[in-house]
Structures are given as structure tokens and as C-alpha cells.
Amino acid sequence: MDYLYLKALHIIFVITWFAGLFYIVRLFIYHTEALSKEEPDRSILSDQLDLMSKKLWYIITWPSAVITLILGISLLVVQPEWLKMPFMHVKLGFVILLFLYHLGCHGIFRQLQKGKARYTSTQLRVFNEAATLILFAVVFLIVLKNEISWIYGTMGLISFAIVLMIAIKLYKRFRKD
Predict the structure, then answer these.
(1) pLDDT over 80 (residue 120)
(2) Which tens digits make up the pLDDT trace of 131-151?
(3) What is the C-alpha radius of gyration for the chain, rounded to an integer number of angstroms?
(4) Which pTM does this prediction carry?
(5) Residue 162: what pLDDT?
(6) N vs C: which end of the chain shows fewer Cβ within 10 Å?
(7) Cα(174)–Cα(119) distance, rounded to whole angstroms?
(8) C-alpha to C-alpha distances, 40 to 31, 47, 50, 60, 160, nearest whole angstrom
(9) Separation CA 146–CA 27 (nearest Å)
(10) What's the confidence (pLDDT) of residue 164?
(11) What is the mean pLDDT of residues 23-45?
(12) Cβ–Cβ contacts within 10 Å for residue 49, how many?
């Protein structure tokens, strides 16, 4: 397959994978909150969120992750010189982190399917931002094709994470009022 078609398909499936990851954690948050409600609301909401989560996870998110991986490997086979570039090593490190995040989501998914919530909705909101940080890092790495001057890149990601945490705290306070 032509390089540009591989690249286009890879980008499409990265987008659908991230969309699935972002939305599944939102469903986890709603599901966790539903488990603290009284019956019959608890059962009704939990059943609906179980179904929505299953469809999202197994029809969109997992297939997108697998196809993204296959297309990414295909791109590296077509362009093996990328493996000699430092930015690609850093990017692949973030991709490994993203797969670990994905597996973490799978663990949470399985717990919630059993009706158990190990994390609070606030903890899940914070967890959700890890994917955002990885997305920012990967996009900047792939567009700029350098390690983003580790000092500035690291400071930028830390600053962005702090802003996200402040936003989550403000949102929590706003929800209570």
C-alpha cells in the first residue's frame, strides 16, 4: 500500500482510538456516579452504561487501537529510517504509555462491568487527562520531528498538567455549588 494511504489511515484510526479513550473514561465517571444512586436509578443507569461501554470498548476503541498499531508498524516498515531518528524513539515511548493507559482503562472497564467502582469520579477525571497529555506530546513530536528541547517540552507538559488539575478542581467546586 502507498505510504500516504497508510499515513492517512493511521491518522484516522489514531483519532478514533483517542475518541474512544476519551469517551470511555467519561462513561466510567457516569457509571461510578450511578453506582452511588438509590434504586431503581442505580440499576437502570448501570445497565445502560454497561451496554454503552461494551459497545464503545469492543466495537470502536479496541479495534482502533489494534488497527493503529498495525498501521504504525506498517509505516515503520515502509520508512525504516525513522527508527534512526531520536524523535521517533521518544514518540514510541509515548505510544507504549498510551497502550499502558489503554490497558488501565480495560481494568477499570472490567471492574465496572461487575458493578464495582474502585476510583471516585474525581480520580477518573484526573486519570482522563493522562490521555490528553500523551496526545499533546505525540502530536508535537510527530509534527516538529524533534525531541522538543527536553527542558521546554517537559516544562510545557508539566504546566499543561497543572492547568488541567486546576481546571478539574474548579469544575468540582462549581459542581458542588
Answers:
(1) yes
(2) 988 898 888 888 877 765 656
(3) 18
(4) 0.85
(5) 84
(6) C
(7) 21
(8) 14, 11, 15, 30, 41
(9) 35
(10) 80
(11) 96
(12) 21
Categorize the per-residue pLDDT at 98 as very low, low, confident or very high, splitting at 50, 70 and 90. Answer: very high
Q: Find all residues with CB under 8 Å of 14, minimum gap 6, and list them.
A: 64, 68
| Polymer length in residues for the chain | 177
- Residue labelled with grid coordinates 498499531: 69
d(CA 138, CA 136): 6
Q: Which three cell numbers stand for residue 114?
A: 461487575
What's the mean per-residue pLDDT of the chain?
Answer: 90
Residue 155, classified by CB atoms within 10 Å of its CB into exposed (0-12), middle (13-18) or buried (19+), is exposed
Provide the Cα torsion 19, 131, 109, 46; round to 10°.
Answer: -60
